[in-house]
Specification:
The chain is an alpha/beta fold and 304 residues long. It folds into two domains: 5-217, Rossmann fold (3-Layer(aba) Sandwich), CATH 3.40.50; 229-286, Alpha-Beta Plaits. The protein has helices spanning 43-50, 72-78, 94-103, 109-122, 138-149, 168-183, 195-201, 219-227, 240-250, 289-297; strands at 5-14, 17-27, 32-36, 58-63, 66-67, 79-82, 156-160, 187-192, 204-209, 212-217, 230-235, 255-258, 261-265, 281-286. Strand 7 (156-160), helix 6 (168-183) and strand 8 (187-192) form a beta-alpha-beta unit. The longest helix has 16 residues, at 168-183. The protein is elongated. The model has no long low-confidence stretch (mean pLDDT 91).
Length: 304
């Protein structure tokens, strides 16, 4: 099957700043595809180009088989887009927000009302349908924003950091509903800086930083190939720390500081060999997606 999104050498410049630096990727039908990286990595810029909000500087980008430069209106009509900021009308009820949004896609009257009720039920918002937006919690507002994007039954939905700022309970509820949408066959492209979110929801993802793709694959494959099956956590303090880092480098390992601990990742799926370094406190644990990111970039994935 043809990809839903195909980007080839995609670039976006703002003056001298290159926000997206000649990246190439594909989104397959029915999958949840993620862009994982810290703030400022180029995720939102890439999403804006996919949503036909911002034109590419160079390169090729097709969405749903259409060129973003020549067929932007048709693409927007077929997409559901959830931006970082909800853009809900605070003077309207939750249900009326959906109905007003539906008018942009030609849904009116009883048809729009019936669809709004259907979407509210799917997202667990029926009991709050008459509430004004200002009376909703952050988690409910986010779920309403996602629900609004599905009013016109889009072929694909683009979500830019869908759970930023939510408490863990609200975040998990959004995750459940996104998983349900995937089961319905909806293609989802999402950006995130939450490791757990990417690992839980994405079939495939790209790790992006400084506008460039560093790695691509399934979450499990990226962890296994880049960070290895296990990570060693070494407790080393004072002047011994520099000595241990040098010794690890001689063995071909790069250590990453995490407070008082050093994290050492394996290679090619193997457990890191840190014996004989004179370190008394060593703990092995399963590697995570964050370990893979650290191994790629050498820095923490931060929300900043």
């Amino acid at each position: 099957m043809d990809p839903v999104v195909r980007a080839t050498q995609l670039e976006k410049k703002y003056g001298r700043l290159t926000a997206v630096d000649r990246i190439s990727f594909e989104v397959r039908p029915g999958e949840t595809f993620g862009l994982l990286g810290p703030n400022g990595a180029g995720k939102t810029t890439t999403m804006r180009m996919m949503a036909c909000i911002s034109p590419p500087t160079s390169g090729d980008l097709t969405v749903l088989g259409m060129d973003v430069r020549r067929q932007s209106r048709a693409i927007r009509d077929a997409l559901g887009v959830v931006a970082q900021h909800d853009g809900l009308d605070p003077d309207l009820s939750a249900r009326d927000n959906l109905i007003v949004h539906a008018r942009y896609y030609g849904l009116r009257g009883s048809v729009a009302g019936a669809r709004a009720d259907e979407v509210l039920e799917f997202f667990g918002l029926t009991a709050r349908s008459r509430d004004e937006v200002d009376n909703l919690s952050g988690g409910l507002k986010r779920r309403l924003s996602i629900a609004r994007a599905f009013m016109h039954r889009p072929r694909m939905v683009i979500l830019d950091e869908p759970t930023t700022g939510l408490d863990p309970q609200s975040r998990n509820r959004v995750w459940e509903q996104l998983a349900n949408l995937k089961q319905e066959g909806v293609t989802i492209a999402m950006s995130t800086h939450y490791m757990e979110e990417a690992a839980s929801l994405c079939d495939r993802l790209v790790v992006i930083d400084h506008g460039r793709i560093l790695a691509e694959g399934t979450p499990d494959a990226l962890v296994r190939e880049i960070a290895g099956a296990q990570t060693a956590m070494l407790k080393v303090e004072g002047p011994e720390r520099a000595r241990v880092v040098r010794a690890l480098a001689e063995r071909g390992y790069q250590a990453h500081g995490r407070g008082m601990l050093l994290a050492v990742h394996g290679r090619d799926g193997d457990r890191p060999q840190v014996e004989g370094l004179g370190v008394a406190h060593v703990i092995y644990r399963p590697s995570t997606l964050e370990d893979a990111f650290l191994a790629l970039t050498g820095r923490e994935l931060r929300d900043e």
